[in-house]
Amino acid sequence: MQVRAKHKLCRRIGACIWGMPKCPSTKRPFRAGQHGKTGQKKMSIYGELLLEKQKLKSFYGLTEKQLKLTYQDAKRSKGQTDYRFLKNLEFKLASVVYRSGLAPTIFAAKQVVSHRHIKVDGKIIDRASYQVKPGQVISIDVEKNPAIANIAKNTNCEVPPYFEVDKEKCKVTVAREPAQGEIPCAIEVMKVVEFYAR
Predict the structure, then answer these.
(1) From CA 53, how far away is CA 30, in angstroms rounded?
(2) If we measure between CA atoms, which residue out of 182, 150, 194, 197 comes closest to residue 86?
(3) End-to-end CA, the chain
(4) Residue 19 to residues 61, 118, 122, Cα–Cα distance (Å)
(5) Is pLDDT above 90 for 151?
(6) pLDDT interval class at 3 (50, 70, 90)
(7) CA dist., res. 16 & res. 30, Å (int)
(8) What are the residues whose beta carbons fall under 8 Å from the beta carbon of 160, sequence distance 6 or more?
(9) Are 171 and 164 in contact (CB under 8 A)?
(10) Cα–Cα–Cα angle for 166, 91, 67, nearest 5°?
(11) Full set of structural domains in the chain with CATH
(12) pTM over 0.70
């Protein structure tokens, strides 16, 4: 698997995709390279759609194939495609672990899932793409994984209202599905839908 600089896209857009204070874009809000500070040409419509797609892919830590499959699932579902698309991304197990504060980054969330530290309704699930449903409980075994649990307890983030978190027990309950427009995401998802619908 090719390793890429996690914050390269942040430098390109001039802000951190995940809102991290230690992101290189905080000190250098311009593209990397010798021409980074010079003015950028106006982006084409295709370029704008592509950029939003890249931002969404990076935000949720997905491959191109994973993002496209999630879009295709949303397109087949009932309801607005952009809402179903974002909701499906938000309810992937790794996303829930990250958003609820059980892990400090989306990359750490994927790692704790793949290393079998996460349980769903008391059963170990090691697939980051597992779709969580309302009513399910995601947890870390505090006694078996004290180091992981300690990181989770000390992770500060703004938890979306559709997740109920018990920090002390390292447990999060998916209370309900998010309402339209409730998912905190500074990405124009409709542009990503337009990109795939071309």
Answers:
(1) 20
(2) 182
(3) 28
(4) 15, 25, 32
(5) yes
(6) very low
(7) 11
(8) 90, 99, 178, 182, 183, 184
(9) no
(10) 145
(11) 8-31+42-88+186-197 (1.10.1050.10), 92-174 (3.10.290.10)
(12) yes
